[in-house]
Every structure is written in structure tokens, then in C-alpha cells.
Write a structure and sequence with these properties.
The structure holds three protein chains of three kinds. Helices cover 73% and strands 0% of the residues of chain A. Chain A is mainly alpha-helical. The termini of chain A are far apart. Classes of the chains: A mainly alpha, B mainly alpha, C alpha/beta. The interface between A and B is large, with 40 and 40 residues.
Chain lengths: 524, 157, 258
């Protein structure tokens, strides 16, 4: 081993020390948390959640396809999922697993050759890719072996193909980023890639339900009508090779992956040399221009919100929402359910107007009720965010005016647009603009009432409350969140009861508005 | 912090946790792989119950009467055919076969999303209509790979 | 004999901003040179360029005659560098970090262990040797950074603000070690804002203002009339009268000319 390393021009002892250090940093680091929302203080490392995420994706995907598609498509889809997940993972973790800028100030002035560093980083990245690859292999291999059209050879052919795809994809991503921009992927791209992982799970979870529920055999029909461009996707011949036991494409794939790996290593090494010689570590970090805090504290906004203080908090919340990506991740997670209902409802013909009071007319109303029930969670996530200094400031000003500003900011930036867009969708889908407008009006009133109640309840420290877990969604406010959420659902039920009568529905909205004012006055 | 938590948070503990999870997933995946019948039980079309009017329409068609069918009628008749094989006859098959594109697409769907009995019924209908040969050829190829044997037998000339 | 550190015509630009502009100075063997300047005057840029972390736009750097960008391995073997941010992996413990440095320099394990024990004692690191660096105070981190910079017993030491956060005992220890290194024939380039330490410790001082050298003189000469602090203030704010008075001192270079 030592001789091989020396032959490669690598210093064995520094190489081993660096690799050991990088692995320790991986296991202790929080940087794998971007796609998982995991935080410091949690018992298991974010890396563990990444592995869990990959296992979940592959389990959902394979369970969805089980018995419904032929082995070649089963392999093709699983291999493609591996490619997408590995690519997004490498992009997200590029700066840490492949190119940590800290390396320069720690290692750059020590007598370590670029080959030594790049091989250690490359191997470290390989371990990461291997971990993801294995997590994406287990379910397709084990469950795929049970398909009617697979044989025992599947047991080694699929993992082989999956390894080819994982290594090839990682090497490709690394080559692209190491040779293009030494700074690695931009923050926005990293966020997009992190979202790919989150959305893959959501799409598989909700989309899977859709496919299983609609009974039209959508997934079984997909392989029968593949678009022509799919034949150019490299995982397709590999999928066929796994199913047919054809070794030639697998050997070819292995050769290409190996070649890409060598190219990636060379690219990484060159990037290191370039960075350590040309670029400084204090290179400019580009951050998209955040909205100016305070823009909304202008007199008009202050008058609308009832004072400069709530207007300032409004602006502060807007800033937090714009800058705290992890908070946004948590908010989108809670908003995913109503969003999925709004998408799946029309697609599965369960989106009739509530006035019809049939089983297919529940969802348009449930969507808004679900949305309202997420308000306490969203508000708590905002208040409990520890990821931005502004959030600390927000926690300090969570008094009456602070609550008011935070509430209106959340509503105006997230919830009102949702309800208005939803009303637009209903108007189009039902071809009944008046009923849709009324629907939107009740939705706004429901949000108004629930948001006031949630803002006040979360301020009054709930019984049994504990400081929120860092990065947690609920922390100690579980009781309030569950209580207000349940009330929102009950109100949704009442709404459904009065839905056939437009006047009663309008009265219900007015009642909610009055109740909101009552809550504000009494609790204040 | 308790000793086991401290151990779990160490790099060695994290590696062990990860290895245990992957091992558990491998065992679970292997166990699921033996439960093919469980998954296949959920591959079935679930049409609504047949209405009396649909039965009356089928009787009229089988009696040789010519009826102008709209899309909803065709769907209901097809679902009758799937759910109660034998309760409709040549008249219904002929009437459905007149909309051959629609019928072939619908049969194709049943051949991937239906239970074995539903697939057999769909094949029977498509063979009577004699217009969906490409769909049946593709289904034969698929059945050669995936079975079940009854479907392959029904598809073989 | 080559000087320990030789900087000739060093210029570095970040985009259209010139951070250091035609900087010349040398650090002879057996001396400690203070590298002073207001915030943003280009000290850190110079130090990074000397450590091989930042290729200068123009100019030459030599460490005992070796160019860190051509003959980097040799230059880096004799160099000890403590950057302003400490240059530490914060998720490691001090013990792990010292072991890493020992391995990166391929030190003899027994000698490294003895040296490590000595540094741990000297900087009083025993109490936090196995805690993660990200849980340590600023002063404790700085001690770890200094120990990592000194572990391989470098002949040339470049320190960027090494006393930040240190308590009195640690400051005394650093001063003692730097003096010992210089007396043993080594060389130190030392950047700091704590001018009384510089005045007592350094043989010469190079003062930067807006990226240019405004003084390169023996510390004693600069502090001759009042104090180093007064000279620093006059030179960086260009108090003409005092600058002219200083310019008459022997071995002294004053002015902003390129």
C-alpha cells in the first residue's frame, strides 16, 4: 500500500492523517444537514439522516414499482434515482466533502503535496458516495430479487450497475465543479440540489399515493410509452443489461466510470493547486442581495399595521424568511400537505365545489383548513429559529406588537398568496368564479382567526413547555400547536356544514373575523 | 450526558449506528423481496359497482339492437365486462370494438393495472374485437417475462 | 547568506482594489520583525502570500532563498504559520489536531510526543486537550493554534495577530518563545496591534498604510522620541513633522514612494 502511494506521488503518512481527519469531520460535522434539516445537538449525525433519506427514497420507489413494471424498467428507474441523488448530494456537500476552503488555512502552508491532499479528499468523497450508493442499493436489490422476471444474478448485477452509476455520477459532478469553478457550486444551486432530495421524498410519498390510489395503472403504462429521448439516458442500457444479464454494457459502464474517476481526481488536484496558489481563502462569498430590512417600516406600512414597531417586526420577519433557508425548508415541509392536496385533488377528480357536499367536494375545503392548521407550526418555527441573528431579535420582541408584525408578515408572504392562488385554481376548475371568491374569502377569515389565536397562544408559555429543541419544528409548543391545529380542522368541518348556503357561508366568514378581533382584544 | 448517548455520538458510535441501520435495511429488503404476492394483491382495477341500467344496456346490445354509445356508456360497459365476465356477450364486444382506439388503450391499461381475472377478461374482449393485436403482442412479451401463466396461456394463439 | 524572509515588489490586487502595493522588506536570521499597520492596510494579505496561500499579482517572495510558489515543499518545511483565524479544524480536539500536524510534517513520533507535551505544559492546554475546538474560548483556541504552529520547531515563524484573546501568562510564554527562537538563529515575522509588545519584542518594525510601506526601521529608532504608538500614529496618519524627524534616524526608511 505504502509503495503504491509513493508510486502515485502521494506522501503516505500525511495521506493517512488527512483521510482519518476528513472522516472524523464527516461524522462530527453538521454540514450534511442542508438537505435533512438536522442540527447540532441531535443525537445522531446529519450524515446518518442523509443515509436514512436515501434508504427512504429507494424503499418508496421500489415499493411503488413492485410487481407493476418489468425488471428492466425497475432497474432503470432505480439506477436513475441513484444518479439524481448522488449528483445532488455531491453538489450539496461539494464544499465540505470535496473541497473544504478550511483545508487551505490548515493544510495549505504545511509540506503536503497537492496529490496527497487530493487523493485524501477524493477517497473521503468516495466513502460518502459509497455510503449513499449502498443505501440506494439495498432495497432495489433485495426487493428486486423477488420480482417475477428476475433471477439470482440480479443479486450482483444490480449492485454492480448501481456502483457504476454512483461512482460515474459523482466523478462527473466533481469534474464539472472542480474544473469550472473552484469555489464550487453556488449557494442557490446547492439549495436547489438539497431541495431535489427533499422533493424526491415528497414526490415519491405523495405521488406514490396518487399512483396507487387512482387505479389507472399509470406507473405500469410508463415503460410502454417511453419518450424517445429516454433512450439516450445512460441508465437505460444499464437497466436492460441488469435485467438481461448482459455483461458487456456493464463492463463498458465500469470503464467509463473508472475513467471519469481518474479525470475527477486530476480536476480536483488542479483545482487545489489553483486555489492554493491563486485564490485567497477570504474570497468573496456571493450572497444574493437580501431585501433591505426596514423597507416596510415606512409610514404607510406602519399605519396599516398599527405602529412602527409591528412594521419593523414585519420587515424583520420578511428578512428572516428571505435569508434563513433552513426555516424556509421547515415551512415548506409543513406547507407540503395542503399543497399536495391542491395538486392531487384536481388530478384525482376529488375537487368538486364544497356546495355540492359530496365525498368529492371535501378536498377544496380541507386544503384551506389544512393550511390554517399549519399556522401555529409555522409561527413557532419562526419564533424558535436559531439560525439567523434576526430570529434572535424576533424572539426578544415577541410582545403584542411583535406578534402582530410576525403574524402579518407570515400571512402576507406565504399564506395569503396561497389562499388567493387556490381561489384562482378553484375558479378555473369549477368554472364558478363567485363561489371561488367566497371560498377565498372564508379562507382569509379562517387564516385571520387561527393566526391571531396561534400568535397569542404561542406567546403565553404553554404548560409543560420546554425551550425549543434547536432545529426542531415544534419543541415544547406541541400542545398549543396541536390544539390550535385541531381547532382549525373543526372550523373546517363547520365550514363544510354551511357550504351549500352562500349567505350562511358569508356569515361564517364574518363570524370568524369578529372572533379574531375578540381574541385580539381579550388576550391582549 | 449518559454513557450510551456519549458513545452513540462518538464517530465509532455513529459508524456502528449506520452499519446497523444498513444491515437492518438489507434484512428488511430481503424479507420484502419474498412478499411479491402481497404487493400483487394491490394491483387491481376498482371500478364502481355495476348499475342496473348498464346491465339493461348490455342486454339490448347483445340482443342485436343498435345503440349510439357515448364515452360514459362505453366505460360502464367495459367495467361490466371486467367485473362480470360472461354477463355480456358478442353484442357488447362489437359495440365497444367500434371505438377501437379507445378500447385498445383501455385494454392496455387493464393489462398492466388489473388483476389476473381482469386481465383475462380484457384479453377476451380484445380478441373478440380483433383490433388490438399490437397491444396483445406487447402484453404477450410482457407476460413471458412477468407472467402470470394464465395470462400468457390466454395470449398465446 | 539568504535572509530568512525576503519580499520584493510585492503587489496584490483583489479585482480593482490594490491590497498591497510594491512592498519591500526582509527579515534577517536571528531577528524578530514587527509587521504593523491599521486595519485593512494589507498585513494579512502579505502574510498569506509569504505562507504560500495567496499567489501575489506581482513581486517575489523567498523563504531562505526558496520561492514558496515554485519550491513550495522546501519553503513550507521550514515555515511555521499561524493565520489570523487560527487555521484549525474546529471539530477536532487539540490533541487530534496536534497529531494531525505531526503527521503532516512527518515528525518523528517520539520527538513529536515530547515536543507536544512541552507545548501543552507551556500553553496550559492540559485541561482542554480532549475537548472539541469549537467548544473552546477564543484564548484557548489561540493557544492551540500557536502550539500547532510551533510543533514542528520551524526556523521561520510567521504570526498574524498571535496574541488575540490570550491571557497575561500566555502572552509572556509567546514572547519568551519568540525571543528564544530568534536567539537560536531563527526568524520571526510578527503582526500585531499590541504595540507595546512589539516595542519590547521586535528588533525592527515594518509599518504599512494603505498597502504601502511607510516605515521600515529599528523599533528603538521609531520609538526614540515618544513611543512606537506615537510613531505609528504619525506615520499612518502622515504627520509630516514627525515623519520628517523620524526619517533622519539611521537605518530608517520613511515614505510612501513606490
Amino acid at each position: 500500500m505504502e509503495a503504491l502511494l509513493r508510486w502515485l506521488g502521494v506522501q503516505p503518512r500525511p495521506f493517512r492523517a488527512l483521510l482519518r481527519t476528513f472522516v472524523a469531520l464527516d461524522l462530527r460535522g453538521q454540514f450534511y444537514g442542508l438537505a435533512t434539516g438536522a442540527k447540532a445537538g441531535e443525537l445522531v449525525s446529519p450524515l446518518y439522516w442523509v443515509v436514512g433519506q436515501m434508504l427512504t427514497v429507494s424503499l418508496l420507489l421500489t415499493a411503488l414499482m413492485q410487481g407493476r413494471v418489468e425488471a428492466w424498467f425497475y432497474a432503470f428507474a432505480s439506477l436513475s434515482a441513484t444518479a439524481v441523488m448522488v449528483f445532488s448530494a455531491v453538489v450539496v456537500e461539494f464544499q465540505e466533502a470535496a473541497f473544504d476552503p478550511k483545508d487551505i488555512t490548515v493544510v495549505g502552508h504545511r509540506p503536503v503535496s497537492s496529490r496527497t491532499w487530493s487523493l485524501a479528499r477524493g477517497l473521503n468523497l468516495s466513502l460518502y458516495v459509497a455510503l449513499i450508493g449502498v443505501a440506494m442499493t439495498l432495497f432495489p436489490t433485495g426487493m428486486g430479487l423477488g420480482l417475477r422476471d428476475t433471477e439470482v444474478r440480479w443479486l450482483w448485477l444490480f449492485p454492480w450497475a448501481n456502483a457504476v452509476v454512483a461512482v460515474g455520477t459523482a466523478a462527473l459532478a466533481l469534474t464539472v465543479y472542480a474544473s469550472g469553478s473552484v469555489a464550487g457550486p453556488g449557494e442557490n444551486l446547492k439549495k436547489v440540489a438539497a431541495w431535489v432530495q427533499i422533493l424526491a421524498i415528497m414526490a415519491l410519498f405523495y405521488g406514490g399515493q396518487l399512483m396507487l390510489r387512482d387505479g389507472s395503472g399509470g406507473i405500469g403504462l410508463v415503460p410502454l410509452h417511453l419518450d424517445p429521448w429516454v433512450s439516450y439516458v445512460p441508465t437505460l442500457p444499464l437497466g436492460h443489461a441488469v435485467a438481461d444479464g448482459a455483461l458487456r454494457p456493464l463492463f463498458l459502464g465500469t470503464s467509463v466510470s473508472t475513467l471519469l474517476t481518474v479525470v475527477a481526481w486530476a480536476a480536483l488536484r488542479r483545482a487545489w493547486e489553483r486555489v492554493s496558489r491563486v485564490r485567497s481563502t477570504d474570497r468573496e462569498v456571493r450572497v444574493s442581495a437580501p431585501p433591505r430590512a426596514g423597507t416596510l417600516s415606512r409610514p404607510l406600512v406602519a399605519r396599516l399595521l398599527g405602529g412602527r414597531r409591528p412594521a419593523a417586526v414585519h420587515a424583520l420577519v420578511r428578512t428572516v424568511l428571505a435569508r434563513d433557508s433552513e426555516l424556509r425548508a421547515r415551512l415548506v415541509t409543513v406547507l407540503a400537505m395542503p399543497a399536495a392536496a391542491a395538486v392531487l385533488g384536481p388530478l384525482t377528480a376529488q375537487y368538486a365545489p364544497p356546495s355540492q357536499q359530496s365525498t368529492t367536494s371535501v378536498l377544496p375545503l380541507a386544503t384551506v383548513a389544512l393550511l390554517a392548521s399549519t399556522l401555529p407550526t409555522a409561527m413557532h418555527a419562526l419564533k424558535a429559529s436559531r439560525d439567523h441573528r434576526a430570529a434572535w431579535r424576533l424572539a426578544e420582541v415577541w410582545g403584542p406588537s411583535g406578534r402582530s408584525g410576525a403574524r402579518t408578515a407570515l400571512l402576507s408572504w406565504l399564506y395569503w398568496p396561497f389562499v388567493l392562488a387556490h381561489a384562482g385554481l378553484c375558479a378555473w376548475w369549477w368554472s364558478a368564479p363567485v363561489e371561488a371568491a367566497l371560498h377565498g374569502l372564508v379562507g382569509l377569515a379562517l387564516l385571520d382567526f387561527v393566526s391571531r389565536l396561534a400568535a397569542h397562544s404561542l406567546w403565553v408559555r404553554p404548560i409543560l413547555s420546554v425551550p425549543p429543541v434547536r432545529g426542531g419544528t415544534l419543541g415544547g409548543a406541541l400542545g398549543v400547536v396541536a390544539g390550535v391545529g385541531a381547532l382549525a380542522s373543526v372550523l373546517g368541518g363547520l365550514w363544510f356544514a354551511v357550504a351549500p348556503w352562500p349567505l350562511a357561508t358569508a356569515g361564517f366568514a364574518a363570524l370568524l373575523a369578529v372572533a379574531g378581533q375578540f381574541v385580539d382584544r381579550e388576550i391582549r | 450526558m449518559s454513557a450510551w448517548k456519549q458513545r452513540l455520538r462518538s464517530p465509532r458510535g455513529q459508524v456502528q449506528l449506520m452499519a446497523a441501520t444498513l444491515l437492518g435495511a438489507a434484512v428488511f429488503a430481503g424479507a420484502l423481496g419474498t412478499q411479491q404476492a402481497f404487493f400483487e394483491r394491490y394491483i387491481v382495477e376498482k371500478p364502481p359497482p355495476v348499475e342496473a341500467a348498464t346491465r339493461r344496456l348490455a342486454t339490448r346490445l347483445d340482443g342485436g339492437e343498435r345503440v349510439d354509445l357515448d364515452s360514459a356508456d362505453r366505460t360502464r360497459l367495459y367495467e361490466l365486462w371486467l367485473q362480470e365476465p360472461g354477463s355480456a356477450g358478442a353484442g357488447v364486444a362489437q359495440a365497444l370494438g367500434e371505438a377501437s382506439d379507445w378500447l385498445c388503450a383501455r385494454v392496455e391499461r387493464s393489462l398492466v393495472a388489473g388483476s389476473t381475472a381482469q386481465r383475462l377478461a380484457a384479453i377476451d374482449l380484445a380478441q373478440r374485437a380483433e383490433q388490438c393485436t399490437p397491444v396483445l403482442d406487447a402484453a404477450r412479451e410482457r407476460a413471458r417475462a412477468m407472467g402470470p401463466a394464465e395470462v400468457l396461456d390466454a395470449l398465446n394463439p | 547568506m539568504n535572509p530568512a524572509i525576503e519580499v520584493r515588489g510585492l503587489t496584490h490586487r483583489y479585482g480593482d482594489k490594490t491590497a498591497v502595493d510594491a512592498v519591500d522588506f526582509a527579515v534577517p536570521w536571528g531577528s524578530i520583525v514587527g509587521y504593523l499597520g491599521p486595519n485593512g492596510s494589507g498585513k494579512t494579505t502579505t502574510m498569506k502570500a509569504i505562507a504560500g496561500l495567496l499567489h501575489p499579482t506581482e513581486g517575489q517572495i523567498r523563504l531562505d532563498g526558496h520561492d514558496p510558489y515554485v519550491d513550495g515543499m522546501r519553503a513550507r518545511r521550514i515555515l511555521g504559520f499561524v493565520p489570523d483565524d487560527g487555521g484549525l479544524y474546529e471539530l477536532l480536539s487539540p490533541r487530534e489536531h496536534l497529531a494531525l500536524v505531526s503527521d503532516l510534517h512527518e515528525l518523528d513520533p517520539r520527538q513529536a510526543s515530547t515536543r507536544q507535551d512541552e507545548l501543552v505544559d507551556a500553553f496550559e492546554m492540559g485541561a482542554f486537550l480532549d475537548r472539541r475546538i469549537d467548544t473552546l474560548s477564543k484564548g484557548q483556541r489561540q493557544r492551540v493554534a500557536l502550539a500547532c504552529g510551533l510543533l514542528h520547531d520551524p526556523r521561520i515563524l510567521v504570526l498574524d495577530e498571535p496574541l488575540t484573546g490570550l491571557d497575561v501568562n500566555a502572552v509572556r510564554e509567546v514572547r519568551h518563545r519568540l525571543r528564544a527562537l530568534a536567539e537560536a538563529g531563527g526568524a520571526v515575522l510578527y503582526s500585531s496591534h499590541i504595540l507595546d509588545v512589539v516595542e519590547r519584542l521586535c528588533d525592527r518594525a515594518v509599518i504599512l498604510a494603505e498597502g504601502r510601506v511607510v516605515a521600515d526601521a529599528p523599533t528603538a529608532e521609531l520609538a526614540r522620541d515618544k513611543s512606537l504608538e506615537a510613531a505609528f500614529h504619525a506615520l499612518t496618519r502622515m504627520d509630516e513633522a514627525m515623519a520628517n524627524a523620524l526619517a533622519e534616524a539611521p537605518h530608517t526608511r520613511i515614505g510612501r514612494e513606490k
